[in-house]
Amino acid sequence: MVLMKDEVEVIGFDDAPFNKADKVCILIGTYMRGNRIIDGIYFRKFKKDGMDVTEKIIDIVKEKHYKKIKVIFLAGITFGGFNIADLWEINKETEKPVIVVIDKYPNKEKIFLALKKYFDDADERIKLINSFPEPEKMENIYVQYVGADKEFVKNVIKKTKLKSKIPECLRISHLIGRGFLGLR
């Protein structure tokens, strides 16, 4: 078993809801100690369906709390439509484990059809998605991870959940994102 303090420092990223007509989306990062103490909230704008969310995530992680952050959580691999977070690049540039948490196993066939229909660079995006580890079921969620082993992932998820099935940093980023709905 991997030993880890209860207040392990993590950051979780999600995007705010967006409309079809939007060209820009909002990325939310919540930095927490364990599952109870919020020590930072970060925002970045990124292009809907672009390919810039990876650099935005890296920029946030490398800010004030960089040395303290032990894990980067992502609420999926796509943000703002099909802006794909490159797990390998995030891990390489930050030297931190990256853990993707999702509710359901993704329907890759459906995703790839949409990419081929709407994107000139669909092959590049599909290749990137296919390079990631397959999602695996862990209790009642699915996870993909880079830069960590399964035991570490199980342990850090357990330490960062409160009453939800997902880590608090992701839950709070999601809640903050929903707050942007009122601004429309």
Can you describe this structure?
InterPro entries: Endo_dU (IPR002802). This is UPF0215 protein MJ1150. Belongs to the UPF0215 family. This protein has 184 residues and is of the alpha+beta class. It has one domain (9-183): archaeoglobus fulgidus dsm 4304 fold (2-Layer Sandwich), CATH 3.30.2170.10. It has six helices and nine strands. The chain has helices at residues 53-61, 87-94, 108-118, 122-131, 150-160, 168-179; strands at residues 9-15, 24-33, 37-47, 71-74, 78-79, 83-84, 98-102, 136-138, 141-146. The strands form two sheets. A seven-stranded mixed β-sheet has the order 3-2-1-4-7-9-8, sandwiched between helices. Strands 5-6 form a two-stranded antiparallel sheet. Strand 2 and strand 3 form a beta hairpin. Helix 1 (53-61) runs parallel beside helix 2 (87-94). The longest helix has 12 residues, at 168-179. It is globular. It starts with 8 loop residues before the first strand and ends in a 5-residue tail after the last helix. The model has no long low-confidence stretch (mean pLDDT 93).
